[in-house]
Amino acid sequence: MARLRICDIIKTDGLPYGVNSFGYTIDCLREVFKRKILPVDTNWGRFFENPRFSILKILAHEDHICDAKMSLDYQEDFEFFKEVIEKLYKKDKYMSLEAVINYIKNKPNIKVKL
Length: 114
Fold this sequence. Notes:
Elements: E1 9-13, E2 22-24, H1 26-35, E3 55-59, H2 75-88, H3 97-106
Parallel strand pairs: 1-3
Antiparallel strand pairs: 1-2
């Protein structure tokens, strides 16, 4: 049975750094693993920069676009998440990404810069 391949990579775009999602075909991953040279734990996205890969981008809704970093790599990232959680977390309640983004937009001094 033939498989329909729409693209090699599918990704969201426009959400805060660390929040966007990515999906890859098996063939795409095989190609990347063949070319990968050094072990790396950051900036791994560059391995997928290949003109042969077709990419489908799903753009974030304009209300969700936010220039902030939401990955937990450094102490200042921890402080950022600590403040967000302390301000927004309610016991046994779901904390939505929308609430986090609105908090960041209304309090720009909390943003961890890229």
